[in-house]
Design goal:
CATH superfamily: P-loop containing nucleotide triphosphate hydrolases
Number of domains: 1
CATH topology: Rossmann fold
CATH architecture: 3-Layer(aba) Sandwich
Order of helices and strands: EEEHEHHEHEHHEHHH
Shape: globular
Distance between the termini: 52 Å
Strand content: 5-15%
Largest sheet: 5 strands, parallel
Number of strands: 7
CATH class: Alpha Beta
Structural class: alpha/beta
Length: 252
Amino acid sequence: MSRFAPGACVLRSDGTVTISADQMKHVFIVAYGRTGSTALMHALNCIDGACIRGENGGMIRTLAEAATLAHAARRRHAHDSAEDTRPWYGAGDIRARRFGAAIARAFTRTILAPPEGTRLTGFKEIRYASDTLTDEDFEAVLRFMLECFDDPYVIFLTRDPEQVAESAWWQTRDREAVMDVLDLTVHRFRMAHEDYPDRTFMIDHGAFDTSPEGLRPLLDWLGEDVPSDVLARALLQRIVMPEEADPPRSRV
């Protein structure tokens, strides 16, 4: 049986398959630095038809902000926007939901830019820690992912705080401050998972660090399958050395 949904793809004359950006699964790996997000991305790219991209500098935060502002403008000023003598003229004509969906599709097509035949796309990002993103911005980003992208799946990735604190740039910072940031970030992820239990999944680096089968519950949740030997080979590959990692900028 084909994995492609009816109407989701077009068979071109050259034999290639084109799938609409709004017919793909969208998978977002939400993490913080040194959690194994690159290894998880690499493993998920073993799924047939998957194209999970790497970081983009937290670009989705700006898109989420734009979508939030569009909703706010209509909500606050639509009642007094019918005449061109009013400061917010036209606010009542803003199509905030359409705008959000449109920029999400544009992001998929032009930033993720998955190759033809992709049926599952997305990206991983580490710029969700409490010192780089406010609670308000985090909530806006999560709403944007879940409301504006087609068939969204959000993966919250964590790791033992003690291990993270001893890794790469984290170990150059004040230990107590680092532990506070990590605790707050994990709490943020857990609260978000409680709010959206059907569309989010919590997984810890320790679950798959030494056993590729630790990814099986996640794959089942995604409705996907990867042979165990393929997962094992993917996770054996060393992805990036700590000194090569690019730390996100703190907002404080």
